[in-house]
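This part of the workshop introduces the protein records we will be handling. An example says more than a description, so a record of this kind follows.
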Amino acid sequence: MASVNTPVYDRLAELKAFDDTHAGVKGLLDAGVRSVPRIFIAPPEVQASIEHQPEHGAPLQVPIIDLSAVADERTRREAVEQIGRAAESWGFFQVVGPGVPDRVLDEMLVGVRRFNEGNPQEKAALYSRDPARKVRFSSNFDLYQARTANWRDTLFCATAPDPPSPADFPPTCRDIIMEYSKHIAEVGEALFELLSEALGLCPQHLKDMECNKGQVLVCHYYPECPQPELTIGTSRHSDSGFLSVLLQDDVGGLQVLHQNQWVDVPPVAGALVINLGDLMQLITNDRFKSVEHRVLANRDGSRVSVACFFTTHLYSCSSARLYGPMKELLSEDNPPRYRETLASDFTRYYYSKGLSDESALLHFRL
């Protein structure tokens, strides 16, 4: 029994007090916080995995693939094979030569930083947990579901298939968001073609399934952390959609779980990080992998990243399209391992449990 002098920890009240500031994690630092509040403190096993990462021989390296090679028929096949191997063994790879001007990549990162480090009133005006809002700012979408809060703030922009009005985007990064989203849609189109070919299917196959129909930009800002050993930037999780394309700055901190160890995904100039989501693993019947990843907090400066999720769940709210293992990949020796589902139902379940190391795929497995 707690002594009368021991204050009762009311987690819900602390979560609500943080949420009600509409200022995010950056607001805590601006208010003078110099230690990690209790709602952000990670469980002991997570802290242990940050401090003591296993080493097994030579460091593992996430594959790096040159996308500029796909323009030449002679080298396209090799690139397709590389992408297929990476999708099957890692579920993660980096691409160089993606066809996006360096200026656009740089300005996108600068724009997100400018928004987060600028006028707090601009952020507060966009602060919302309403999933119907196509442009919104918040900290931790799963704040009230997760075991602990993550040390990050997020600007969410649903840019396809029905983009919001330009006036809905924050003025500090409006133009570059609109420009960047067009470029990244083209990168996604190319990747879906290459992934289709890697499966032995026609280039249009995944696009015909509308896997590229929806597009969401999730702009993360990870403020410098006074005690990075106690918390985490983004908890261990896999993504829910079909494909994710990530732009990261030069700070680092992204890690992918491979062969039961955390492997750094170091920043590469001009590169984009590609990873496959749960729905891609589902429709390929486990041939392509959706793998867990996380982002570490750091003491030395803030980190910016921009993830583009290709996911149909927003569009599928009015769609009856069912997603299950593709019949072209099935055989007597490779029967379906998942039941069919609406993308919206899959995503609803994924978000209901928040970020965690328990894959949503288990819920849909036969």
